[in-house]
Amino acid sequence: MGPPSTSLVTTDRPTLEWRNRTPGPVTVEVCRDRPCTQVVERHEVVGERTRPRQPLMPGRYFWRVSTAVEGQEPLRSPTWLFRVRANPVALDSFHGRRTDLDGDGYSDVVLPDRRNWGVMVLFGSPTGLEPVRRLGVPPHPSGEQAMVWVGPAMDNDGDGLSEVTVSFTTVDLLLRDESCYIARYRLVAPERDLRWADRRCPPSPGELPGELGGFVGDFDGDGYDDTFLRVTFWGGIPLPFDWRLFRGGPEGLATMYTRSFGDVFDNGPGVSNITSNINGDRYEDTLVGTANYGGPNEIAVFLGASETPLESVVLRREIPLYTRPPAMVGNGDFNGDGFTDILIRGPTILPGQQTQDHQILDGSAEPDRGAFRRVTFTAPLLYAGGGFGFVGDLDADGRDDLLYRSSVAPLMEDYWIFRGSPAGLTTTPVPIARTPHISLGVLRSSEDYNGDGRDDCVGEGWPGAGPRNFYALISEPGTPLSYRAILLTEHFR
């Protein structure tokens, strides 16, 4: 029931919920490691809910539930993971997910391997990211593979391990009528056994085109991650951006219903989205933006719920600042109050421009009030191509930060962060790294790969006219606000 595995909890005594299969008391264990050899606390509970007896220190925790059965081995739940942040608050909520394929508590990286038609996986460890491992995908019978997408991590079957949906666009070369299909595979790696799972990843290949895994969250509050598929065409006919919600459960994902976000807006269909927990409850929400080139554009907040998730529209607002679809740069708790905030990127800036306006939607228990704030960031030569994208806690203070890059020195790049604070994001950046000109342009993820409590970054760069490579910015142990760039693997389109 929750919090969903790998979530970041906002309090140091989070509510832990489950469903009992048998009557009677159960034993709840909270541990520092997955096998539970380092037990933090163990106590009996009558019911289906508890909280740790003592406040927990910041870091990763594993927990599980077991019950005695006469004459049999104890029934034991899967082992789940949650993360306690620095500077916890009283609000008992959660948000965010991590990619943890092997369940060891260190975030992993999954990248598309378009050269070999598969994926590249780098497992996290105390020393950082381990060498790359590759896994190919068999050719799809419907046609030629044309593109690879790696979706966000989720735990849709509740086993405590992350799954990643990998989608392959295929083109039917016989019909040549622009009919495309999506072959989907579920990537798992228990005990680091990297493999494709059975296809509990609906729909079946060729059954329903679209983009699976555009956004992921526990929208119905049952502890299983859900995901949406955006239907953009059907038999070569464009559709007005309908979405199909697939709810998680013990058997994986299952179809629920079609949700057309486009019918909410006057100015166009919903095309950009981001998951959040904007009102701090036990259900995750989403914010959707319209595509009305020439503006004004709109955004709307859809709340999660147990029976009809994302049907309730609590906020709808025009964004006159934009002449293109709103680009939600990221979501995080920038002021540390426990509610998720949304950063909406401003217009494209010109070379040499030193300021840029953004808007922040502050999360609160009453999101219908829509507390928007315009924030002007100032920096030495903001990157004109839009060097924003990473949101994470890069200084381990419990408040999320915003990372951006700029090119000031010849053939070099500087990486900076606008730090979170009780008043929100600061508007003057702090430098964290200078690297050769790798142009970390396609930003992939921001997670804690070496387990030191500071988020690291992975992105795709193309230095000069050379091949596109994957790089990481990894925090330097014991050195605050210091990061180093490392080459992960070469990559060709």
Protein described:
Strands 1, 3, 4, 6, 7, 8 and 9 form a seven-stranded mixed β-sheet that branches. A four-stranded antiparallel β-sheet has the order 15-16-17-18, with no helix packed on it. 47% of the residues are buried. Strand 25 (297-303) and strand 26 form a beta hairpin. The protein is globular. It starts with 6 loop residues before the first strand and ends with a strand. The chain contains no helices and 38 strands. The protein is an all-beta fold and 493 residues long. Helix content is 0%, strand content 46%. Mean pLDDT is 78; it is low at 173-180, 202-210 and 233-238.
Number of helices: 0
Going by helix content, strand content and strand pairing, the class is mainly beta
| Helix share bin | under 10%
- Label the overall shape: globular
Q: Please report the total strand number as a whole number.
A: 38
Specify the biggest β-sheet: 7 strands, mixed
> Which percent band covers the strand fraction?
over 45%
Mean pLDDT: 78
Uncertain segments: 173-180, 202-210, 233-238
